[in-house]
Amino acid sequence: MKDIENRADIILLVDCFYSKVQDNQTIGPIFTQIANVNWSHHLPKMYDFWESILFGKAIYKGNPMLTHFSLNQHAPLKEEEFKTWKMIFFNTVDELFAGENAETIKQKAQSIADLMHFKINSPQSKINIV
Ligand code: HEM
To answer: Gene3D superfamilies recorded for this chain (predicted)?
Structure first.
């Protein structure tokens, strides 16, 4: 199996990830019903996000913490939701890729998810969100 090497690999990973997410009973409805995500808008944003994270290209512009903080007002994002998100992400990476970048993207996803979970559910979250 090959490693994640370029944007085409990121696109494959992101597309597979969100296809599984949409079918998932725990977090799928948050995307498809509550946020009613516009996929042709969301997916390219996520390609940029992961390319920025993994390859250090500053192409993603946005504030994921704020996005999820406001999402949390409509769909509480708790342990179960984050556990599910991480499980699907890790499984998708492992199904498609192996190598240093595959390990790095899982570690980054884990740290961002854990930080997001902590900030959203912390009593101080309104002050510390960014
Ligand atoms: C409980 C787990 C999660 C759920 C249910 C969730 C759900 C969502 C939804 C519904 C959106 C789209 C908002 C919209 O377009 O209206 C979104 C955007 C986004 N998510 Fe998540 N998310 C989760 C965890 C994560 C994690 C762990 C990361 C990063 C590692 C992440 C990164 C992003 C980014 C970068 C955006 C785009 C923000 C922007 O610039 O607009 N999400 N998420």
So the answer is: Globins
Tell whether the model's pLDDT for residue 128 goes beyond 60.
Answer: no
pLDDT digits (tens, 9 = 90+) for 112-122: 999 999 999 88
- Kindly list the domain boundaries of the chain, sorted by start residue: 7-128
| Mutate-to-test residue for ligand 1 from 66, 85, 120, highest number of ligand atoms within 8 A of CB | 85
Are 75 and 30 within 8 A, CB to CB? Answer: yes
What topology does CATH give the domain 7-128? Answer: Globin-like (1.10.490)
* Angstrom distance (rounded) from CA 96 to CA 16: 9
Rounded to 5°, angle at Cα 126 from 125 and 129: 60
